[in-house]
Design goal:
With 410 residues, the chain is an all-beta fold. Helix content is 1%, strand content 31%. The longest helix has 6 residues.
């Protein structure tokens, strides 16, 4: 991607982790609510733009819930945005992620100030819900003659009171407000709390900015997602809902375009017609007639640790013992003009299969005998006959009849 020197290229890089437990901290029992929505602004480096942070997140999550009566249910959690699929609920309630109270100062601090940020001690709460025993252990903080000494130490990713980044933001949210699956299916995610709704998903979110020249045009976002309920989900997906405007006021952002670069796994937005209205961008400095690109990319995300496939494609060494795309070349579809036919040959005596225990996810190698046999993998039984049975990687999509659409490997 060639960009003239007069443009800024702003990256937002996203880290995603899933967690069975968060390190040595208090379990959060408070539930998310729209009454605690707050906004903060990251402006910790030289990109010349303010990057807002809202504590209900710009994320989309999806879980797959198996029910013995109604088969499989896919449920999507989204943010309360004013657009189709924006988490609209009934009675004025948004079926969305909402901020968990207590992770910021409770009172209104004015426009653009509210989310807890490392350089603004006035935004810190009187007590961190995840570390309720912490108090402030530093020297008094006096800014412009005003005592802004907080009641607690900064709750930093790099440690207590550690201000590693030039700016770090921190909040939690959950999907307790999302009652859709309960209203339709009667789904309860937590047998220990029958008043709980949603999918018992708790998400801690951090933003980081450094002014160092190596990262001076980047906002890093870290999402740690926890299933805090008692139900298990066979599959989960994660995405980012982005509404980027290159420019500030109308009509400037009406001529923007976005593109996903598959090879680089980056989505970026730019002003495609090269016309810039200075009156719409008075704060874009040093030259309001020139705006830049903004790009989003996942820097790291968890793969499926149990299916034996490098599905997050993070093995750059080629030394991983996991399956690669090349291992499934014989499973690619062939289009004869009318029907997509799996390009597979029947299983043969001596072929090796990987079987996965649904409860423990332990994998075992099974060698196909010279006879019919029934095996079990991921809770499903498979009747195999050498020279006859064909195994296809992925499930056949009912709409496209495409056997290469895989809904099981994550």
């Amino acid at each position: 991607m060639n960009i003239k020197a007069k443009y800024y290229l702003i990256f937002t890089l996203l880290f995603l982790f899933t967690s069975a437990d968060l390190i040595a901290q208090q379990r959060i029992t408070e539930r998310g609510t729209s009454n605690f929505r707050k906004v903060g602004v990251h402006r910790g480096n030289v990109v010349g733009i303010r990057l807002p942070v809202r504590d209900y997140g710009a994320v989309v999550g999806g879980t797959r819930v198996f029910d013995g009566i109604i088969d499989t249910v896919y449920s999507v959690v989204i943010t309360p945005v004013d657009r189709p699929g924006g988490g609209e609920g009934g009675g004025g309630k948004s079926y969305t992620f909402e901020p968990i109270p207590g992770f910021a100062y409770s009172e209104d601090l004015g426009v653009g100030v509210g989310v807890a940020m490392s350089h603004l001690p006035e935004t810190w709460p009187a007590q961190w819900p995840d570390y309720p025993d912490w108090t402030y252990s530093g020297d008094p903080i006096i800014i412009d003659g005003i005592d802004k000494t907080p009641a607690v130490d900064w709750n930093g990713f790099f440690g207590r009171s550690q201000l590693n980044a030039d700016q770090e933001s921190y909040f939690w949210m959950d999907d307790n407000n999302d009652e859709e699956n309960y209203q339709i299916q009667g789904f309860l995610p937590d047998a220990n709390d029958l008043s709980r709704r949603g999918h018992a998903l708790q998400v801690s979110v951090r933003g980081f900015q450094w002014s160092n020249f190596l990262a001076q045009d980047v906002l890093f976002s870290l999402y740690n997602i926890k299933n805090d309920g008692t139900e298990s989900y066979d599959q989960a997906t994660f995405g980012i809902l982005v509404g980027t405007y290159v420019g500030v006021e109308a009509p400037e952002y009406n001529d923007d375009a976005s593109f996903f670069n598959v090879r680089e796994s980056i989505t970026y937005t730019w002003d495609f017609d090269t016309y810039i209205s200075p009156s719409a961008n008075p704060k874009w400095l040093p030259d309001p007639t020139q705006v830049g690109y903004i790009a989003y990319a996942f820097l790291e995300s968890p793969g499926n640790g149990f299916d034996g496939i490098d599905n997050d494609a993070d093995d750059l060494t080629g030394l991983s013992e996991k399956f690669k795309a090349d291992d499934f070349k014989g499973l690619l579809p062939i289009n004869d003009g009318n029907v997509i036919i799996p390009a597979v040959t029947p299983i043969a005596t001596g072929d090796k299969l990987v079987l996965i225990d649904k409860n423990t996810f332990e994998r075992s190698i099974f060698t196909m005998p010279n006879d019919t046999v029934t095996v079990t993998s991921m809770g499903s039984r498979f009747f195999l006959r050498p020279g006859v049975t064909k195994l296809v990687e992925g499930d056949i999509d009912a709409i496209t009849t495409n056997p290469n659409i895989n809904s099981r490997d994550g």
